[in-house]
UniProtKB/TrEMBL annotation:
GO MF annotation, one: GTP binding
Keywords assigned by UniProt, alphabetized: GTP-binding, Nucleotide-binding, Nucleus
Compositional bias (Basic residues): 630-640
UniProt-annotated location(s): Nucleus, Nucleolus
InterPro entries linked to this entry: G_CP_dom, GNL2_CP_dom, GTP-bd, GTP-bd_ortho_bundle_sf, NOG2_N_dom, P-loop_NTPase, TRAFAC_YlqF/YawG_RiboMat
Organism for this UniProt entry: Trichodelitschia bisporula
UniProt record similarity statement: Belongs to the TRAFAC class YlqF/YawG GTPase family. NOG2 subfamily.
Chain intervals with Basic and acidic residues compositional bias: 1-16, 487-509
Any Gene Ontology CC annotation: nucleolus
Record function comment: GTPase that associates with pre-60S ribosomal subunits in the nucleolus and is required for their nuclear export and maturation.
Gene3D superfamilies listed in its UniProt record: 1.10.1580.10, P-loop containing nucleotide triphosphate hydrolases
Name of the protein in question: Nucleolar GTP-binding protein 2
Acidic residues bias locations: 510-522, 531-544, 552-597, 610-619
Domain of life: Eukaryota
Amino acid sequence: MGTGKKEASRKERQGKTGDGMANVKTKGENFYRDAKKVRSLNRLKEGKAQRNARGEITQAATFQSREVPNARIEPNRKWFTNSRVISQEALSSFRDAVAKQTSNPNTFLLKTNKLPMSLIRDDPTPTVNGLKRHHAKMVVETSSYGDTFGPKAQRKRVKIGLDSFSALASESTTMHDSYLDRLEQARLLRGNADSDAEIEDLTNGQLAAPREAIFTKGQSRRIWNELYKVMDSSDVIIHVLDARDPLGTRCRAVEKYLREEAPHKHLVFVLNKCDLVPTSVAAKWVKALSLEYPTLAFHASITNSFGKGSLIALLRQFAILHADRKQISAGFIGYPNAGKSSIINTLRKKMVCKTAPIPGETKVWQYITLTRRIYLIDCPGVVPPNASDSEQDILLRGVVRVEAVENPAQYVAAALAKCQKRHVERTYELKEWETPDQFLELLARKTGKLLKGGEADYDAVARMVLHDFLRGKLPWYTPPPTEGGEEEGKTKDGRLGEMKKQRLDKEGEGVEDAGEDSEEFGAVDPADIGNLDEEFTGFSDEESGSASEGETLGEGEDGEEGAEDAEEGEGDEAVGEEDEAEGEQDEAAGEQDEAAVEQDTAAVQQDETAVQEDEEPSGEADSPPPPKVAKAKGQGKRKR
C-alpha cells in the first residue's frame, strides 16, 4: 500500500475528512474506480438505451421512453381560437408610432427581437408585390454560379431580359434619368451649388480632368478594411466633424451603410474644433445637425477642453441603455485630420494616441480603455469617393498634405474666398491687394521668401497660407443653414481672427471706426463668447440680441475691442459688487464684535467699582484707568 493510501486511511479512521461523505458509497465504486470516475462514466451512458443480446431495449434512456403517459387537455376555448393576432388598425397605429419615434434622434428602440419588426418596418428595397425579390430568387435557382461562370459555363451571351430594342432604349433612358437624380440628390445633400457645371459636363459626355495621385489618399482598401473593422466592433459610432465645414466632412456613404446594414448601432456627431468658429455659428450647426443625430460641440485639449463632460455622460447613458452587456465600445470615424485621436487623448487626459497636425498619422485601429465598461476605438481617417468633389474641396478639408501638392499657389484663391478680407488683412498685416497673385507677392516681400533675382517664391508662400488656413491661424467657417426670417451671413463674428491689440492713449479715439465696423458686421455680445473652461450644456435656440453701441464700444481699435472692454468693465463691476458685499458683511460682523466688547467693558467697570467701594468707602483714591479694548475684526474697513 502506498503512502497516499495510508494517509487517506488514517484520515478516514480519525474522521478528519471534510466533506462528511466518507461512509456514502456510489454504486459501482470499488478499488479500481472511485466515485468521481463512476459518475463520469454514468454520464456517458445516460444517453443510450440498454439492450439485451437480441437487441431489444430493456431499459430506455433518459427522456426516450416509448410508453405514452396519461394526459388530459384542459377543456378551454383558447385551444380552438387564433393566438397572437392583431388587427390591421392596431398594426397601422403601432407602425405609425414606431416610425414617429424612430425619426426622433434622441430615442432608441431596444430589444427588437420581441417585436414583429417585419410587420412594422416596410421593406427598404423597392418591390412590387414581391416580384423583384421573387425574380432574383428564380435567377439564382435557374442559373447557378457554376453554370454562369468558370470552365463549366453554359451561356455565351448576357441575358438582358428585354424582348425588343424599344424596350432596351426605354430601359436605358430610365437608368440614365435615375443616375442624374442620384447626382442631383448628392449635390443637394452636400450643399455645394458650384458643382452644376461639373454635372453638366458629365451629362454631355465629357470626362473630368485627371487628378494628381495625392488626391486619392484615404481611399485604399487597407483603410476601408480598418474602417469596417471599427464599425463592426463598435456599439456607438462617433462621427467627428470639423466645426468650420460640417457638411463637407460628413461621410454620407458611411451613414447610409449604418442606416441600412446596421440600424442597431448608435451614430453621434461631434463638432470638433469649435473654438475656431463663433459661438453663435456653432450653436446653429448643433441645432441643425441635432435634427438627424445627437450632436455635441467639442474642443480637444488635454489641459483646457470643452464638451468633455457631455461626451462622457452620453457614453455612460449608452452603457446604461445596454445594461445587459458587460461593456460597450465607441468607435471614432471621420475625415483625416478631423481630431479623432485628439478627442480620445482629451477623454483620457493623457497621450494614448499618436497625433500630428498632418493627415494620415493614424495607420491602424487602436483599442483604448476609458472606464471599466466603456472602450474607445481609434480609426484611420477615410475619404469616401465623390465625383462632385473638386481638388480644391479635397485640399481645403485637410485630407491631403500640402507639401505633396504640385503648384499649391493655384488653391490660394479658393482659400481666400472662404475668408473675410478684413481677417486676412489683420492676420498678415497686409492691405491694398486685389488679386490672389498680388497678395502672394506682397506676403513674399514681407516674409522674405524670395528666389534668386528677388522674385517671389509663390509655392513657399502658398504653402504657408494653406497651412494657416487648415490649422486655424486664418479664421474662416461655413455659414450655417438659415431659417425663414434670418438673413444669410448675418452671424456674429465673436472674436474670430482677433489679433493682439494695443490700447490707445486718448479716450474716445477709434470709436467712430468701431461703430462703422459694428454696423457692417454686427456688434459683439459678450454673452455670445463661450468660456471653454466650463462644461458644454447646450445652446439657446435664439441668438441673444446685439448690445447697443454705447454698451459694447469703448476705447479700442474696432467694435471687437470695444466689446472686449465692455466685457472687462462688466467683470470689474461684478468684482466690485462682490467686494462691496463682503465689506458690508465684515462691517456688520465688526459692529457685533464691538457691541459685545462694550458690554464686557461695562461689566468689568461695574465689578471694579463695586470692589473700590468695598475697599475705599471715602472714594479719595484715583479711579483705575479703563481697560484697553481690542479692535474688532473688520472694524473700520472701507468699501472698495
